[in-house]
Records
---
Amino acid sequence: MKIDFAARGLPPGSNYYKYRKKIEKEFKTIYRVFAEKERLPGAETVIIFCNDPYIAGLNREYRGRKGPTDVLSFYYVDHGEVEFYRGSVEEFYLGEIYISLDRAAEQAARRRASLINELRRLVAHGLFHLVGWDHRNRSEELGMRLRERELLRWAQREKKNSRRK
């Protein structure tokens, strides 16, 4: 299980650089719990934080949609192949998650949530896309949201337990 982080299109004074260590530590915990619960110990993923213009370019190029979005996931293993790796320690590249910090900040303000909470939600959302979850209809959306909340609760529990040790 390996997770890396990168930044694209962010100015030097961006909040990402200011809170980088905290953000990365937080998301490593979420990823570790995700890999454990999904039985994907060999999965490798990169989370790339970017701005609206950068993600809008990706959205246009790969989805044919105009404008920015909050999160894009690009899987490198077909969803059917993910099953092959479940329970295996064999390393494989699961994919990349791009998160727009501009969108995340706007959504956090709209939801009256902290930026870190919105980023947690987007990371969880992106991870589930990598293993085949989607939200093409209301039923899929509800199922995916339930899995996201469940993952974040488990990660929060693990974080609290690790502080007690």
---
Amino acid sequence: MMEAKPPAHSSHGRTRAALRRRMAPLLETELPLEGVVFRSVGLRYATGEDFLGGHGASLYGGRWNPPGLRAVYASGSPITAVKEAYQSFLHYGFQPQTLKARVQVALRFHLHRVLDLQSAEVLMQLRVGPAALVAEGWQEAIGKGEAVLTQDLGQLACELGWEALRVPSAQDPEGWNLVLFPQTLLPESWVEVVDKESLPRHPVLT
């Protein structure tokens, strides 16, 4: 008699549990990080509150967060932020005339618990190769109901109490991104929009 294969979700559950076990000890070597990053959003989210809420990303998910998990994506340079902001535009080959207006700001931050996924030591502990972090096809995998490694990493990091991930940019080989989880910020950590007063309170949408 042919042996029945275990359901796919069972295999994914075991893989995710193993990843969690490997990630947890990294909390003992917390990485403080401070500086300035850059964030680009559509007009709908161009208010001081929405810039740091992560609600937009939670609606459909992103490379580093599954749907339902709030995350704020920012980049180490303005150029990387622009490339990341229009990744869907480039990926799906939208026509230039469909380009929507966006607002870009600088974010100043001071964090105490950042998981650096650009660190060779961290990746070795997690048993994850760097190429897997920038691999294409994650959108298609989600559409098929398949597990996405980077989303699992983001979900587990948030569950374990990391405030943010420092990750390589898939759109800019020389760039890096910061993925913030606003729900896990420690009391002594902070993130602020530079020149927040100049942002519109109620963007006009047409």
